[in-house]
Amino acid sequence: MSDPARVKVMIIGGGPAGLTAALYAARAELKPLVVEGLVPGGQLMITTDVENFPGFPDGIMGPEIIEKFRAQAERFGTEFRYGMVTRVDPSTWPFRVEFDEDPDDVMLADSIIIATGADAKWLGIEDEKRLINYGVSACATCDGAFFKGVEIGVVGGGDTAMEEAMFLTRYATKVHVVHRREELRASKIMAQRALEHPGIEFHWNQQVVGIDGTHEAGVTGVTTENRVTGEKVTYPWNALFIAIGHKPNSEVWQGVLDMDEAGYLVTEPNSTYTKVPGIFACGDVQDSVYRQAVTAAGTGCMAAIDAERWLEVRHE
User: Fold this and answer.
1) pLDDT tens for residues 163-174?
2) Is the pLDDT of residue 1 over 60?
3) Helix%, strand%, coil% for the chain, nearest 5
């Protein structure tokens, strides 16, 4: 059997963080390989209008901006492969990387940049899937400005939901928070701010069971069910933001790298270094705060520079 192929920089993830890391690594003559995963492009591939990424004053479609990121990285020599990284052995160097749970599908990497992102948690109802990006969203910062002058629903009871609700009050005529319980899970200060905000109304013991609308008209109504009485009510809201948390795609690194309680990878302050020398993390897989395409791209740049400098010292 021939020896596994070896690369200087392996980038796991093909979203804004991974592709920016690839661009910088490629321009540094490191010949990076991007492992794109099963959904190349990440969350931007299911995003319609992107209006908050610098350089696109008229906005751009999510898949189109990913195509541009990819083409720019490819121009400087980035290579790509499809598949999922399912195991990494950090105990040897170069790192042994296994793909698609196949012990015979192996490559070696001098350094690894993790850019696998995070996925929003969804309610799991059929209407939600049908109307994602057509009035249903998991990012108020991304999409709130599209819904000026209408009533908006927010699902959730934690800090994220309260932050989203208060942010959306700058656009909505009224923000309605739908929560499954009788009290909020948010921190005391966040809960107090939201409860006292005149632009926010709370719907307790409620769960969303239906969303009316079409791709052409967007969301036209939201149906909730009282978890105590079973009563259902349909409200004439024109957008629904799901704020029940995100799940970082970090399962492969359990027991290998440090994580916080939610599974976000922990990096050293002001860097993308993980606890394993030569393995770096960037983008939403290590960012539980901002979760924006532009911040992911910024940390992708940082990761490539960190990897380049680490490799220089390693090979001296």
Assistant:
1) 899 999 999 999
2) no
3) 30, 30, 40
Which pLDDT band, with edges at 50, 70 and 90, does 245 fall under?
confident
Query: What DSSP character marks residue 42?
Result: G
Ranked by mean pLDDT, the top range of 55-64, 118-127, 276-285 is 276-285
Give the number of other CB atoms < 10 A from CB of residue 243: 26
- Cα–Cα distances (Å) from 75 to 19, 44, 72, 138, 222, in that order, read 12, 21, 5, 33, 46
Alpha helices in the chain (DSSP H): 16-27, 62-75, 126-131, 140-143, 159-168, 188-196, 293-314
Catalytic residue, candidates 49, 89, 119, 139 = 139
Q: Which two tokens stand for residue 47?
A: 């995003």
Catalytic-role residue among 110, 143, 159, 287: 143
- Is residue 12 packed enough to be buried (19+ CB in 10 Å), middle (13-18) or exposed (0-12)? buried
Task: Tally helices (H) and strands (E) across the chain.
Answer: 7, 19
Active site residue 301: no
Asked if 143 is an active-site residue, the reply is: yes
- Please tell me the pTM assigned to this model: 0.81
**Which residue out of 127, 142, 282, 287 is catalytically annotated?**
142
**Beta-bridge partners for 212:** 221
Known catalytic residue at 142? yes
Determine the distance from the C-alpha atom of residue 65 to the mean position of all C-alpha atoms in its chain, rounded to a whole number. 16
- What percentage of residues in the chain have a pLDDT greater than 90? 79
**pLDDT tops 60 at residue 150:** yes
